[in-house]
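Quick review question:
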């Protein structure tokens, strides 16, 4: 089955936005709206999330990749500029390596190329809090980890609201399954095979997908561009003008469909 998805705009360049652990297309709302006048933009809620909350799944990387291909097929898109943030960037790597004919250009945003010991330990702690204390405590802790580290009072991130107005956007079993998805992921040896225009963008103050991961991706993919920003893990939304400037320029530099 094909998941419910959003298709906005009617521009000559088609963009596919893939969300991370959160799984909700709403992560991209501001970015989508900013580009809808010049591009066609596709995004989707992943299984167990948002409009697809009632769609059961195993919540593996392979399943998310397959769902993404189904969305492109249903939308009638042969190739797209694919933007993936966090775990969405992992899915983008899988698409570029395993389905290169579907990816015109790639943006790896706040993501990682290996789920190494640091990321495992961070995720293990989040899972332990989820198991022993509950969803709200895990969400509050994750909000602190994701914040812009240089300024706890950053208005764009609104940490106070994030830790005091927590609501579960997905059932606990879905969250648990999605948190397990990246364990064992490591495709560093294959990244030099990617031969499409590539932008890597990471934040210097990102604790969840540290900058060394973005630097490694940029070093391994021939010709990849690297942009370094700040704004914590969710810099797409904490630094929207900067993100739109840098990613938008990359998108508009690509040939039209």
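Suggested answer, residue by residue:
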């Amino acid at each position: 089955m094909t998941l419910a998805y959003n298709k906005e705009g009617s521009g000559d360049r088609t963009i596919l936005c893939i969300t991370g652990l959160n799984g909700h297309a709403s992560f991209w709302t501001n970015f989508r709206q900013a580009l809808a006048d010049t591009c066609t933009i596709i995004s989707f809620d992943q299984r167990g999330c948002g409009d697809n909350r009632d769609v059961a799944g195993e919540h593996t990387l392979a399943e998310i990749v397959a769902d993404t291909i189904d969305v492109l097929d249903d939308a009638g898109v042969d190739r797209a500029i694919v933007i993936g943030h966090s775990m969405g960037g992992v899915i983008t790597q899988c698409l570029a390596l395993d389905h290169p004919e579907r990816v015109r250009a790639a943006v790896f945003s706040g993501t990682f190329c290996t789920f190494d010991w640091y990321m495992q330990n961070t995720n293990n702690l989040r899972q332990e809090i989820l198991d022993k204390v509950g969803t709200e405590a895990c969400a509050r802790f994750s909000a602190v980890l994701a914040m812009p580290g240089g300024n706890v009072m950053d208005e764009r991130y609104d940490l106070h609201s994030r830790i005091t107005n927590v609501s579960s956007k997905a059932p606990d079993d879905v969250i648990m399954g999605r948190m397990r998805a990246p364990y064992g992921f490591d495709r560093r040896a294959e990244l030099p095979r990617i031969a499409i225009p590539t932008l890597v963008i990471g934040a210097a103050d990102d604790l969840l997908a540290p900058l060394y991961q973005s630097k490694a991706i940029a070093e391994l993919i021939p010709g990849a561009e690297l942009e370094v920003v700040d704004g914590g893990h969710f810099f797409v939304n904490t630094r929207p003008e900067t993100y739109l400037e840098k990613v938008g320029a990359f998108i508009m530099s690509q040939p039209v469909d």
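Why it works: DSSP finds ten helices and seven strands in the chain. The CA atoms of residues 23 and 70 lie 16 Å apart.
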